[in-house]
Write a structure and sequence with these properties.
Blueprint lengths: L8 H51 L3 H33 L7 E4 H11 L1 H6 L3 E5 L4 E5 L1 H18 L5 E9 L2 E8 L21 H4 L9 H11 L3 E7 L3 E13 L1
Parallel strand pairs: 2-4
Antiparallel strand pairs: 1-3, 3-7, 4-5, 5-7, 6-7
């Protein structure tokens, strides 16, 4: 709407309406981009599964070849399942349907449990995972969602850390804030990509895409939402070829 020069109620109304229209346009643009990105991400694993099945039907001549094809199809199916779960979670978040449980949680124990679950993957990739939780830390929140935060960040570190590298998970308390950090010695993130790293489907560069495996490009977006929903913040520092450090800060119930 045209904005009158006079500093009166009509000008304020026009500015208010323009601001509302701009926010609506941005929301519609984000929705269109999300649908387009989701369609692209879903199309890729579906096409791969169809191609693998067709190749097996046309060319496989032994039980071993059929088993190999089915194994590859299962892997892609699992990737597709993870992607659909992430898309559903984000759709519920956008619609406001996701609600957090609230209970006292030992953050240090939660981090140890997630690291233990990832041990076999780390060993397979020749990556050392260390956990430093020197003291009990109690926070108030949704245990399932906070496990998802730690798991997504650890999965991210495992994907981008080369064999022989190290990942360190640390918990501490500072100024009545619970702090969880995860540092890796991986490939790092270029400075120009850091401001966008928590955006949905954002991928820093083609080199990272090649290493992503089951990574849907949604994990960090979910981490960002869960942390903010708990009244916390998540930040990242990184240097190319040296590694990255993600730091999650959450309100602490107590520190005993």
């Amino acid at each position: 709407m045209p904005v009158p020069r006079a500093h009166d109620e009509v000008q304020r109304l026009a500015l208010t309406l323009n601001d509302m229209i701009a926010r609506l346009e941005n929301a519609f643009a984000r929705q269109r981009r999300f649908v387009a990105d989701a369609s692209h991400e879903l199309r890729t694993p579906v096409a791969v599964i169809c191609n693998m099945a067709e190749m097996a039907l046309l060319n496989a001549s032994s039980a071993e070849e059929y088993v190999s094809a089915l194994s590859d199809i299962t892997t892609e199916g699992e990737r597709l399942g993870h992607l659909i779960s992430d898309l559903l979670a984000l759709a519920r978040i956008d619609e406001g349907y996701t609600q957090l449980e609230r209970e006292a949680i030992r953050l240090d124990r939660l981090v140890h449990a997630v690291a233990a679950q990832a041990k076999s993957v780390a060993v397979e990739r020749a990556i050392t995972v260390q956990v430093d939780t020197p003291e009990p830390i109690i926070i108030f929140g949704d245990e399932t969602r906070l496990i998802q935060v730690v798991m997504n960040l650890l999965d991210n570190a495992l994907v981008y850390t080369n064999p022989g590298g190290e990942i360190t998970l640390t918990t501490t308390v500072k100024h009545r804030q619970a702090i969880f950090s995860i540092r890796d010695t991986g490939i790092g993130i270029a400075p120009e990509h850091l401001p966008h790293i928590f955006e949905r489907f954002y991928r820093a560069d083609p080199a990272r895409v090649c290493t992503e495996g089951n990574n849907s490009g949604l994990g960090l977006a979910i981490v960002d939402w869960v942390v903010r929903a708990h009244g916390g913040t998540v930040t990242v520092k990184s240097r190319v070829a040296e590694g990255s450090t993600f730091v999650v800060t959450l309100p602490s119930l107590s520190h005993v």
